[in-house]
# Entry
Amino acid sequence: MSSDANTPVLRNCIRLPLAEDELLEVTAKAKDYAIMHGAAMRSKTAFSPDSLNFAPFVLVPSSFPRKEFDKAVALQPIINRLMHNVAHDEEFITTTLAETIKVDEFTANLFNIYRKVLAHGFTQKTSLGMLRSDLMLESGCPELSPRVLRTAAGADGGQDAGAAVGQRAGAGVGVGVVGTAAGTGSKQEEQQEQKQKEKEHREVQLGRATKERERRATGVHSAYCCWKQVEINTIASGFGHLGPASKTIQRFVLSELGHADKLHNMPDNNALAGLCDGMVKAWDIYAKPQAVILFIIEDVSYNICDQRFHEFYIRETYPHIKVLRRTLTEVHRDGKLGQSKELLLGSQEVAVIYFRAGYEPGHYHSQAEWDARYLMETSLAIKCPSIHYHLAGTKKVQQALAQPAVLERFINDPEEIKAVGKIFTGLYSLDDNEAGNASYEMALRTPERFVLKPQREGGGNNVYGVDIPDALKRMSRVERSAWILMDLIHPPLTKGYMVRPGGDMPPQIVDMVSELGIFGVVIGDAEHIVHNYQAGHMLRTKLSTANEGGVAAGLGALDSPYLIDSDDEDEQK
Ligand code: ADP
Ligand code: MG
# Structure
């Protein structure tokens, strides 16, 4: 879906294919290694609480440009701060979600909790954010890499690169949101100026996409030139264990294949420790030695290793801190507030709540689960995420943030604004107004450029390319505002072996694309941030023909980055 015949290919970390006997042997060994190191999941087809399958994985690490990886890591604390500020901006959240909550019941339910908590005042002012910013390399971006500039010398390369920089620096408008820049002119002038900006913004977006299509048609490509954010997760950001575990498997495989000399190109990944230490820092802030950390879980946790390892890490590293796992239904049954609004489960006081469920409608079987969520929100416990953080992670908020004038509301440093502005690809409102209706028309005209997203998490909810017109036409004008439209990102391909439970032995070489997730931890209240750090990463890789790559959903595979310094020098040995 996100690739075509012209899609460039990143060079591999080692020469493939492997000889068949070597491949068979190392794959069998790696499968066992994966299970025995907890790179595993419960089977959906043959579920048993007593057994695990290895999680699908890519045999050798997929290449990723070092420069872009380093950039993503360095940017994460800025993104953390951005999201923290967004979460604490009541006016922005309210304005941005105003149309969406009229038609999206799930977001409206979350927003109602937010509204009620606002009305009574926050019992707990500190929030724990454990975020994951997901991104893909963009091979079709107008900001050309040096390689394409060389390849396309004499063509439109240099000119276009300049134009792209100009576009980024200049245009843009906050559609449907309240900006901070105080205008000096009359209301009418402001409105006219706003309209003009919106028009320019749309033209710029359209121009950019046209250039991109031309380039793809002429076959002039870099393997990458930058990366673009797919989404930012503020709830249940998974793979804190499976991210590092993927590196462990692939490090073993590379060593078995005689490439131990290459291991230094696999970056350290301390995601599990970074995230769990975040929970413990929040527990410290709560400052009650007997209080526990509560994980909110689904009725059945298929992705069990990615939760139990968090629990075990905390228990082993901080044996004085107890961890409980409860569903929303159980919290409704057993939970109550104490005299100081502390959350009590039986006689146990909860210091920190870590939501690994509660992000999709299916987790709320009845009003009981919504009541449990509200109970927790009104309690003294520190939530990950608190309701405002959850709302800040909606796709609608991401779309609003991508309008260039908007970032200035949350970030002071112009360099940081520029850096964050660059990570957004085109994101368009579908609200029932002039801009939203223009996006709607654009989607009908050129659906192959886009992905259509509702306010949902967890994969499998988006509509891609040619399916978009039918989906949009089935909606009323107002229903469209529950969705956003986004430019498709075109990541470069990698080639490798994907190993799945029950899959071919030996596995075949397939074309794949990867999505990198960078974890961040941020703790603070509306006035102060007390902790803010980047906390490791994860890489998920899917077949290039698949729209989505959820590992738990069976479409993606565990992977980890092999950092390369240039996409055009061949170092394969
Ligand atoms: P969810 O909250 O369900 O994870 P995402 O926005 O992450 O929603 O989309 C799910 C998947 O769809 C991503 O992991 C990615 O594989 C694919 N995807 C989403 N947005 C884009 C995009 N703009 N370009 C290409 N692929 C995308
Ligand atoms: Mg996602």
